[in-house]
């Protein structure tokens, strides 16, 4: 069995392009960054801790667990999900007219945790200048509310993106290339999984 350790509808949708059958089991962990922890260390630790949290509860040794974490980073600062309109406005102002990084880490392991693979995919995203009025209108769409950095590249927020270098699927929340490579290493063939009878 394949288990996705995330409640994210975007990750669920992306994983469904690789495999037909999987179970969704969100991991409940403390996502507070450690002091002096770099953004790279943080996102990798989050993915690993999510995978390990699921592995400890009612899984078979041969089950494959996929966990991921995405952070929007500018000037070495992690921008999480907004807590309010003011918070979202602050983040979008910080991103306006600049290039930031989106770091998406992946951890794939078996239920016994004796096989663990991790990676961190870093993409550069450049925003055009965004006005305060646009930020206000964008907030009212409801899209920024549960998104790291207060935007969704695959949604309305894509209109702010002038240029992107890296993995689009990673920016959305799950790097398809890396996940497919890991699945192959764990004996799962995404192409075979997608054959329709």
Description:
The protein has a single domain, classed as Maf protein (Alpha-Beta Complex), CATH 3.90.950.10. Strands 1, 2, 3, 4, 5, 6 and 7 form a seven-stranded mixed beta sheet that branches. It is α/β, with parallel strands linked by helices and 197 residues long. Helix 3 crosses helix 4. Strand 3 and strand 4 form a beta hairpin. It is globular and about 50 Å long.
- In percent, how helical is the residue content? 25-40%
Q: What's the N-to-C terminus distance?
A: 20 Å
Overall, the morphology is globular
Uncertain ranges = none
* Count of structural domains: 1
**The biggest beta sheet, please?**
7 strands, mixed
- Note the beta-strand portion: 15-25%
Work out the radius of gyration.
Answer: 17 Å
CATH class (first level) name? Alpha Beta
- Whole-number average pLDDT? 94
- Number of strand elements: 7
Number of helices: 7
Encode the helix/strand succession as letters: EHEHEEHEEHEHHH
CATH architecture: Alpha-Beta Complex
State the CATH topology: Maf protein
Which structural class is indicated by helix and strand composition?
alpha/beta
Question: How do the strands and helices of this protein lay out in sequence?
Answer:
Elements: E1 2-4, H1 9-15, E2 23-24, H2 39-55, E3 64-74, E4 77-79, H3 85-95, E5 99-110, E6 116-127, H4 132-140, E7 161-165, H5 168-172, H6 176-185, H7 190-193
Parallel strand pairs: 1-2, 1-3
Antiparallel strand pairs: 3-4, 3-5, 5-6, 6-7
Helix pairs in contact: 3-4
């Amino acid at each position: 069995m394949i288990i996705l350790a995330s409640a994210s509808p975007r990750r669920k949708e992306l994983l469904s392009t690789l495999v037909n059958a999987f179970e969704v089991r969100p991991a409940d962990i403390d996502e507070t960054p450690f002091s002096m922890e770099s953004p790279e260390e943080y996102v990798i630790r989050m993915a690993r801790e999510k995978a390990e949290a699921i592995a400890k509860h009612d899984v078979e040794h041969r089950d494959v667990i996929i966990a991921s974490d995405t952070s929007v980073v500018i000037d070495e600062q992690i921008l999480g999900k907004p807590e309010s309109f003011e918070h979202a406005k602050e983040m979008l102002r910080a991103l306006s007219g600049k290039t930031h990084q989106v770091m998406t880490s992946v951890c794939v392991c078996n239920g016994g945790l004796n096989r663990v693979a991790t990676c961190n995919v870093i993409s550069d995203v450049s925003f055009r200048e965004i006005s305060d009025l646009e930020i206000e209108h964008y907030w009212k769409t409801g899209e920024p509310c549960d998104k790291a950095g207060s935007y969704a590249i695959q949604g309305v927020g894509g209109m702010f993106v002038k240029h992107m270098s890296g993995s689009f699927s990673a920016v959305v929340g799950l790097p398809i290339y890396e996940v497919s490579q890991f699945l192959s290493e764990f004996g799962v063939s995404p192409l075979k999984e997608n054959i329709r009878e």
